[in-house]
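User: structure tokens for this one?
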Amino acid sequence: MATQDRVVVGLAEEPDLLVQDFTGRHSTWAVLSPLTLKLIRYDDHWRPWAELAERVPGTRDGSWRRDDDGRTTVTYRLRAGLRWHDGTPLTARDAVAAFELLRSLRADYPHRPIVEAIEEMHVTGDDGLSLTVRWGNAKPYAPFEEWGTVLPARLLQSATLDDPGRWTREESLRCPISHGPFRIGEWVAGSHLRLVRHARHPRGMPRLSEIEFRFFRDPAELRDAVAGGRVHVTELSGFSAADAEALAGCSPRVRVANVPSSMWEHLDFNLSDRHLADLRVRQAIAHAIDREAIAAEVHRGLCQVAHSWLPPRHPAHNDQVERYPHDPRRSRELLAAAGFRPGPGGVLIDPDGRPLSFGLLTTARPGGGRWTASSSRPLVAERMARQLAAVGIELRPEAVTADKAFARFRSRDFPHLAMFAWSIGLEANGYLMWHSSQVPDGPGCYGTNLPGWRSALNDQVLEKIIAEGDPDARDKLIREQQVEWARQLPSLPLFFLPQVNAYDAGLRNVRYVGAFGTYVTWNCWQWAWDRDQDGTP
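Assistant:
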């Protein structure tokens, strides 16, 4: 049962540690919102707002500046009066110390390429609250990526952090001193993590005295806990459309949230293949696949059919791009124009007699697992194979576990097609995904241009985007880039998958975001039970 000042959040995944810079688990980031302030955070309307900083840097006040040589200087002013959980004042020197610690490490960690793109970071001003970050020009995308968090560098030892095998056993990473409105009470592995109210958030004192995260083995176990009233809020649930239907009728207190998200399900074309290098073939595949029917059948209509790589909720989304509706007749016309003719077994052949046959690499969810998308992909692949066969294209799906699949995706080790989802961050501008310099054609490449798309016009627009400091002007350029992207079709957009979660109707201000890196706990200081009359409405 709910108590007046306590909330239980259920996750279908347990964090491995509690410092963002050393983990790739989304569950860690969901737990960190109450524990750790970020310089800039996003709200449920996908708008940036300053949390640890006083304001979002911009070109109008000179706090964001791009020089002619391609270097960028960003200045943040931290809020006054903030303290670490041990009572030590938090200043810009802490950010510099965290940066210097990360730069000194010999081990790899998720944001290392971004940290290495910073030329210098230093404290400005007399009060120690202004932080200036100077970015080099070797990685022009870097200023738009998150470089890390402000860590208690004085409590961390680089000798320990140099060994990734010790991270999950390192107390300073599992139970860190931080600076958010809640601090760690206890962490019982495999069971729960209890956070207790510690201080005022910059935007208000939390109404709750405790937030307890409980960890569940799979979505079914989490669903039963919600139905039984043992969990008040879920995040990263892995709930399917069937779970949503079951929860919607289980109790008058349970509300189901189906939030359109930035989880972009798509097909990447390997443009190194001679057939897929032909735009007419890619367009024919797009017209042959009935995305609307697949969305209705497999996802029960909960997902949004995609026409670009940015979701409709994003301020830079362009709704006026070329679309590829289901049209098998048009598909056959394109293939005929490309020189394909009927071959054995109903599969088209090219002028050299080679069959129009493609392998598809995707993910599987063995033994049930956690994530809904992985369980649905084999079904989607099966339906796409039938639809493509109707126009003379053979599709040969191969489903492997996610860790194996993503290793192959990132190295472009798929001969023809790859089906998976990117969790697109709200700061994304397309450069890492689509600039020709970001094709991962060597070890350690940070780019994600997996199709291997190279377009001079696209590159020119992307280079303008990363040089633009004004958000409105940048969004206009991103909309322009989507026109060229949709015309060239290096990937086929499939769906924006929903984030299905549930929460107690008596808990106010639960506001799901539906975007990579920002989770429902982003505003937990506003959460309040109905009987708390002083809560924010």
